[in-house]
Design goal:
4-stranded antiparallel beta sheet; 114 residues; 50% helix; Arc Repressor Mutant, subunit A; alpha+beta
């Protein structure tokens, strides 16, 4: 991803209630889990398997509005980046706990409980 033709869209980290609301949905939680495990920006199409593009766009918008992710458009490609440091600063320990639980659920093959 080059810096020559890049735009970044992000928002401040929202309240704990709004961030937890964004992470509550299983699709969004899986997107955040994949972003966290990747450790850097990921092409948006790599963040979902079983939903269509318009639904994925909706979910990414909710995460972005909660300040959990940012959208990066570089050279015509759209990427998402988890705002780990920003979320950690605003809500210490929250993201690590949620992603850790999601990773443990994925490793065990169990679906996260609602």
């Amino acid at each position: 991803m080059s810096d020559s033709n890049k735009t970044v869209e992000s928002r401040p980290v929202a309240t704990v209630q709004e961030v937890l609301g964004a992470l509550h949905d299983p699709v969004r939680l899986e997107m955040v889990r994949r972003l966290s495990n990747a450790g850097g920006p990921v092409r948006c199409g790599m963040l979902y398997d079983t939903i269509n593009k318009s639904t994925a766009t909706h979910h990414l918008k909710i995460l972005r509005e909660a300040g959990v992710t940012e959208r990066i458009v570089a050279d015509g490609q759209t990427y998402a980046r988890l705002r780990s440091e920003e979320v950690e600063h605003a809500l210490p320990g929250l993201l690590a706990a949620v992603v850790g639980a999601a990773n443990r659920a994925d490793d065990s093959g169990a679906a996260p409980r609602d």
